[in-house]
Fold this protein.
Amino acid sequence: MNKVKFAVNGMTCASCVSRIEEGLRQTTGVSKANVNFASQKAIVEYDSNRVNAKALQDKINNLGYEALIDTSGSDQEKAIISVGGMTCAACVRRVENALNSVEGVVESSVNLTTGRATVIHSAEGSGLTELEKVVTGNGYEFLGELKDNLADPLEASRIKELNELKLKVSCGAILSFIIFMGSMQRWFGFLDFIPRQIMLWVMFILTAPAVFWVGSRFFIGAYKAARQKTSDMNTLVAVGAFSAYAYSATATFFPRFFTTAGVIPHVYFDGAAMIVTLILIGRLLEAKAKGRTSTAIKKLMGMKPPKAHLIINNEETEVAVEEIKTGDILVVKPGERIPVDGVVLSGESTIDESMLTGESMPVTKEKGQKVFAATINKTGSFIFRATGVGAQTALAQIIRLVEGAQGSKAPIQRLADKVASVFVPSVFMVAFVTFAVWYFLPAQSNFSRALINFVSVLVIACPCALGLATPTAIMVGTGLGAQSGILIKGGEALEKNLQTDSCRFR
């Protein structure tokens, strides 16, 4: 049995309590449900094999209230892990389902833009080993947990992915141009000396790496989706590019198959190569955009000075900030940033705390008063005792708040995720209907035209925007807010603010 605590908004009287308790108790797998009107809390005990916390949350929401999972209790913990290899909204859904299947996991929320998964689990639940097992078992990379030292293992993975994308886009663009020249041989007079059949063989050879190496991520993604008996945007691109390549290969080596049917065989090697290259260019631009959105976090981290003046046996020694421990005695000189949080022991100075409070006027600090990491010492010199280091500093907490807000999901994103889950199957259905209409309805059926229209439907359909638009907007909004000294709690706060402002505007 698992236990989950919800913070419930919208309750106005005792009848609301009864309604929620009755609704929860009628849910399959729930053994006990207690709702407290005064504290606006609901505690539910349930069988994790029959129901999960997300379903219970949806149940309360469907009753007309707003439920949020509360992790303030000691029986639940939160872990933030980095996941590599996700490419679209379907990947997010797959990773979330995998994490939710782990024993002890109450809820998981995966953000495609940040590449992070926030996992709320019971203290007695499975550890990181089990989470790693399900992530890698579903074909994705487990890049480790985001520890309190604020190191992000996803950054190195992003740089590697960016370099790989640049290489493949460059190769794909060069190959696509060469293949295009071969396809439009008549446009380029200097190629007339090459027999057409030899040119087709050359294009067949050049298109293979353009499709299967440059576009390998699409085929790998489609394979991962097929293993999970589902489909995603990678499936569309892989099937579209492969269909164009296979059709062109057939027309190259078995042209009689088409001529006997009264159809002049055309090849679309250039289309197959360009499909992959153009979509990969989109992935490259997307990767660059996601990297830029984390600039605010990096700037906040950069505010902390790398060195500090530690006093040992009345002697001053310069040490790395990471080596400072709670209780150490340090000295700060005029113009320096304060390395850690602490309490002034002796001396007096004025400190610029605008990065914390937004107040531009310096604040006077005397013996017994608190000072904070990354704030700027203006005039005097003082000695202080470290009370908060590393993840315990106010700066580290601000960074975690911004990261948490960037990784949060706005309510509208849940709708986008639902749409994305049915989008790909719908596209395949439309593609097959398109093929059937163009092949069977015209007086003279044309397999070539029907196949090209089939491939076109698959290629132009791209559901990635559904899964990227909202989280990217949240990342940019919260990041710019942090740079301006504004802390935004999360996507839900942003959405509610926008709705309120929209109503005022009307």
Notes: Confidence is low (pLDDT under 50) at residues 502-506. The longest strand covers residues 76-84.
